[in-house]
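Lab manual, section 2.4: Encoding a predicted structure.

Procedure: take the sequence of the chain (427 residues), apply the prediction step described in section 2.3, and record the output as structure tokens. A sample record is shown.
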Amino acid sequence: MPVEAAQSAPGAADPPRWPDITREPPPAPVRTAVAGRIVRGALERLPLRVRTPAGEVLGRGGPLLQLHDPDAFFRRIGRAGLIGFGESYMAGEWDAPDLVGVLTVLAGHVGDLVPPGLQRLRGLWARRHPARQRNTEGRAQENVHHHYDLSNELFALFLDETMSYSSALFRGLPASRSDLAAAQRRKIDRLLDLAEVGPGTRLLEIGTGWGELALRAAERGAHVVTTTLSAEQLALARERIREAGHQERVTLLLRDYRQLTGSYDAVVSVEMIEAVGAEFWPVYFETVDRLLAPGGRAALQAITMPHERMLATRRTYTWIQKYVFPGGFLPSLDALTRTARDATGLRLARQDAFGPHYAETLRLWRERFTERAPDVAALGFDSTFERMWTFYLAYSEAGFRSGYLDVRQLLLTRPDDTADPANEESA
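Recorded output:
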């Protein structure tokens, strides 16, 4: 059983595993009162219906948020802000028949939930990133381990046969479970096309996942070096590469990207830069630039957020960072292009945005995860974990449905190596 799985019986919350969920928030009358006033005021303005046990209804109508324990709900938000909001759901203090609908409304109004005056005082009440989550070479593997080494069996319960844990591309395909694997392969093939990967290409992949991109590149005749910090992912990727008979074409490494050496015709990376951390973005791009041969192409897939929201939240510790992706931080497109420009000779040559496709990908994962809840419990994960994971998938889906988040494939080249760069934006 993975260390992150609860050691108690399925269905029971494990206090050592969930200390901030299983114990009641300490009394904080002033913070609770202030939080209650702010949150109630925000809810009254939103297209939601918030119902309390006393029969009170807040909001202007819309998806239902059912408050089971308003006192605990406001205490948690008063103590920990939006982290407390997520923890309150994990604790079962509120529910929503349409969780994605509720979270989509909140994501769509994230910029005006808190009054402007209090937003200017954000630094006084918002928690800061803990130093232990910095993605230094000594700590990055621990951050990766927290999420990606949970259990290969867990991820297999809700991912498709390709074991792809990133946005699919459904263009020309229905956004259905039966077509998810094809849409994932389409995403991978398009990224490999951007990087012009073909027979004999020396390809570096930063972030192996469970090996599907390396497999497809090897099928094209490329020579692939792929690196990860997840021991669980590496083990399954190695098994899949061996079963496909591509051991001669694919070299798998358990290594930090900063430790890589060599020269490559192409570098690809799928939704890995989100785990780099803003302070290390220059190092990431410098590494890509250093490893890319003259005339080479770097093709990245990245989740992005609006630049102004990125700046507003850059130093804020979030629920996702605490429970799902420690050390993670989403960049803006502007931040990526500026960092690449300032740190390297790489420039954005092409981009393609397809955020709505991620919303559908997440919906399919969430529905499958819900269906397989008994199997999740059988793996040793308790009910608090199940609620956390459901909230994470719904929270992420809502981000893309509201337009707060986007996902893009980016082509980076050196200006002397390409002519007439083209940009495109499409859904």
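Check your result against the sample. The mean pLDDT is 91.
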